[in-house]
Specification:
Strand content: 25-35%
Strand order of the largest sheet: 1-2-7-3-4-5-6
Structural class: alpha+beta
Order of helices and strands: EEHEEEEEHEEEHEHHEHHHEHEEH
Main location: cytoplasm
GO molecular function: metal ion binding
Radius of gyration: 25 Å
Subcellular location: Cytoplasm
Helix content: 25-40%
Pfam families: eRF1_2, eRF1_3, Pelota_N
Protein name: Protein pelota homolog
């Protein structure tokens, strides 16, 4: 994400202009948007025109609209973000108060205005615009005929490619069709790795599967790398780690990241820290529920927890925020999609809550 302009007043009202540069930036933007915000962006509008003869036609025009946000819809698979609201600025194509839906686009700037920019939202912008917050863990979760290529970032698990090839069963006396199909499958996965994984950023590539599929694929991968003189694979061979998974589906990645051997290997990456922190969250939720909280869109409740988060940070504590789209947060859908671990002495929590309550009163 690129920050073009930031103008926030002392009362925390103001606006920022951002340019989403990659798919993950749409997820960050989804977390920045709230009902009641003002969003200004380029969009396509279908307009009706009437000729001098009275005939009516329609055309699609590109224009810039400013909406008061009412509905926010995020497609996690396609990483597409649609925002519906009413037009609040005069426009030659759209009347004041008319409804419109803006689909935010990569590499097109938008301006977001809020009455209050709280610390959680400002931290999200800082995270989204920090080049260091890129995916440093990649994974190929596979089984015969199916492979999911994913990137694990601090914010979400991003599916970059899904490879599916029908593998015929082996027949008595002949394995030709089976072996040819398997080779096509491995070649497609290899090309997916070269196309979607940035070896300059990624520190580790996990190759996981049930049975021997992972071992057979790694053997094929580096034999082909030698044959094709693919230097980028040969130079990064040490980054590949073979590990067991129960299936080739994306959800198996969570069990892979919980493997002690994998955890040790990923100790210097961002993903491992998030997974470990989530385990701590669930333990805390069971044993000391007053010290763990999960988020709400309700403004009053959100404000209370934002103040609590600020108090935790001021007292030297840690706050971890998880998304339901991160591999560490698959279970968070039932917790409204966002969770936070607040680490500080229990007495401080009570004091902070009392302060928050008195502020509301």
């Amino acid at each position: 994400m690129k920050l073009v302009h930031k103008d926030i007043e002392k009362d925390n009202a103001g606006q920022v202009t951002l340019i989403p540069e990659e798919a993950e930036d749409m997820w960050h933007t989804y977390n920045l948007l709230q009902v009641g915000d003002s969003l200004r962006a380029s969009t396509i509008r279908k307009v009706q025109t009437e000729s001098s003869t009275g005939s009516v036609g329609s055309s699609r025009v590109r224009t810039t609209l400013t909406l008061c946000v009412e509905t926010i819809d995020f497609d996690s698979q396609a990483c597409q973000l649609r925002v519906k609201g009413t037009n609040i600025q005069e426009n030659q194509y759209v009347k004041m108060g008319a409804y419109h839906t803006i689909e935010l686009e990569l590499n097109r700037k938008f301006t977001l205005a809020k009455k209050v920019w709280d610390s959680v939202v400002l931290d999200r912008i800082e995270q989204a615009c920090d080049p260091a917050q890129k995916a440093d863990v990649a994974a190929v979760v596979m089984q015969e005929g199916l492979a999911n290529l994913v990137l694990v970032t601090p914010a979400m698990t991003l599916l970059r490619a899904k490879v599916e090839v029908t593998i015929p069963r082996k027949r008595k006396g002949s394995c030709t069709q089976h072996d040819k199909a398997l080779e096509r499958f491995y070649e497609a996965v290899m090309q997916g790795i070269l196309r979607h994984f940035s070896f300059d950023v990624v520190k580790c590539i996990l190759v996981a599967s049930p049975g021997f599929v992972k071992d057979q694929f790694i053997s094929y991968l580096f034999k082909e790398a030698v044959r094709q003189d693919c230097k980028i694979l040969l130079e990064n061979r040490s980054k590949f780690m073979v590990v067991h998974s129960s299936s080739g589906h994306k959800y198996s990645l969570k069990e892979v990241l919980c493997d002690p051997a994998v955890t040790a290997r990923l100790s210097d990456t961002k993903a491992a820290g998030e997974v470990k922190a989530l385990e701590d969250f669930y333990k805390m939720l069971q044993q000391e529920p007053d010290r763990a909280f999960y988020g709400h869109q309700d403004i009053a409740t959100r404000s209370r927890y934002v103040r609590l988060v600020d108090n935790v940070k001021e007292n030297g504590g840690n706050v971890r925020i998880f998304s339901s789209l991160h591999v560490s947060g698959d279970q968070l859908n039932q917790l409204s999609g966002v969770a936070a671990i607040l680490r500080f002495p229990i007495a401080d929590v009570s004091e902070a809550e009392e302060d928050s309550s008195s502020d509301e009163d």
